[in-house]
Design brief:
single chain; five-stranded antiparallel sheet; 15 strands
């Protein structure tokens, strides 16, 4: 016999009733010496979606399973709008409110839809590492196309840009770079301008 039912404890075992559990689990499916995901103990079969839902009476709490429409296996909240998912194309996705906010592709390249805010340090380690800031829009001459800033609270305790390097578009394929410093009143003052040309020009507004 492979199915064991204990009416006194309301437990059901598959394979062996000798297996103990860490808590008050009611269904125990056991198979020892399994070393492949193909042979994991529990199978959920279906011709389209297949999964498990977590609920309290009629209220959904969460879910995990396979979404056939997206070809993704995920674990998420009650309606799947917020979830982590792995696809058959060797990519990992993070969803919030039904929208992809995090992607790691098969080459381990990471894409974030929003802002990366870290409380620790951000380190880039590789042979000849590089950081690229890419503007995806065409601009008229003089428009800012990208900005790299160091922020701080200064002496006032108000967060502001302390140092900024700003790339600007020109009418040609040259580019300008403007370096700005905090001006002491919550704004910024230009400290150096590099003007793109066959021979670049440096301009200091002060001495």
């Amino acid at each position: 016999h492979m199915l064991f039912v204990d009416g006194g404890t309301d437990k059901v075992w598959v394979n062996s009733s000798a297996k103990t559990v860490p808590g008050t689990q009611r269904l125990i499916v056991s198979a020892d010496s399994v070393t492949s995901t193909t042979n994991w103990q529990l199978g959920i079969e279906g011709s389209a979606d297949a999964g498990i839902v977590f609920h309290e009476d009629g209220t959904l709490r969460g879910a995990c399973g396979y979404d056939a429409g997206l070809s993704q296996t995920f674990i998420g909240d009650n309606d799947g709008d917020n979830r982590w998912a792995a696809s058959s194309s060797n990519a990992i996705y993070g969803y919030t409110a039904g929208t992809v906010g995090f992607t790691m592709d098969s080459a381990q390249a990471v894409t974030l839809a929003g802002t990366l805010d870290t409380a620790g340090n951000l380190a880039v380690t590789n042979t000849a590492p590089a950081i690229y800031i890419t503007d995806t829009t065409s601009h008229s001459a003089g428009a800012d196309t990208g900005k790299l800033c160091i922020q701080g609270f200064g002496s006032t305790g108000v967060k502001e840009n302390l140092v900024c390097m700003i790339a600007q578009a020109t009418a040609s394929r040259y580019s300008n770079v403007v370096f700005q410093l905090a001006n002491g009143s919550g704004g910024a003052a230009t400290a150096l301008t590099l003007t793109g040309a066959a021979t670049p020009l440096a301009t200091f507004p002060g001495n």
